[in-house]
Amino acid sequence: MSAEAPAPAAAPEPTPVKLAGEAREVALAEAQHVLAAVQDPRRRERLAELIADVDEGAVAGDSAQALEEVLELGLVSGRLRAVYGPEGEQAALRTFRKLPLGKELADGAREITGALQTLVGRELEKVAISSVGPGAYVVTLAADGIELSVRVDRQGARLNTVAI
Questions:
Q1: Average model confidence (pLDDT) for the chain?
Q2: What is the rounded CA–CA span in Å between residue 159 and residue 108?
Q3: Which terminal residue of the chain, N or C, has fewer Cβ atoms less than 10 Å from its own Cβ?
C-alpha cells in the first residue's frame, strides 16, 4: 500500500482591490493613456484586461500588478499630478497603497521604523548618507554602540545592516 503525499494547498485567491470615485476614474484614464502608447500585443491585451477590470470596479492578480505598474509610472514621473491635479494624485496614491507592491513598501517602512526605534533616547554619534548608485542611497545612523544603515532606492527603503 503506497501512501500518497497530500496535494499542496492552493494559494489563496488575492483579495480584489475595489476602485470607486476619483480613484477609479484616474486608474481608468491612466490605463487607457498607457494602452494608447503601447505597441506590443501582449502588453496591449494585459492593459485591455486591466481597463475592463477597473471599469467593473475591482482589480486582483495580474490586473492588480498591471495597475501597480501604471500608477507607479505616473506617480514617479509626476504625470498624475500634472494631469489630474493633487486630488487625482492622492487618489492614485491611496489606490497604490492598497495594491501588493504598495503594501510591501509600507511593510518595509514599518520594519525600518521598528529598527530605528532602538536608537530613541540614545546619544546620536553618527549620521551619514552615501550614494551607492544612480538613485540609490544608504543612510547610516549610530548611537551608543548600535549602528543601523537603511538603503533607499527605486525599490523603496529597506534595512541594510545592523551592527551592535
A1: 90
A2: 8
A3: N
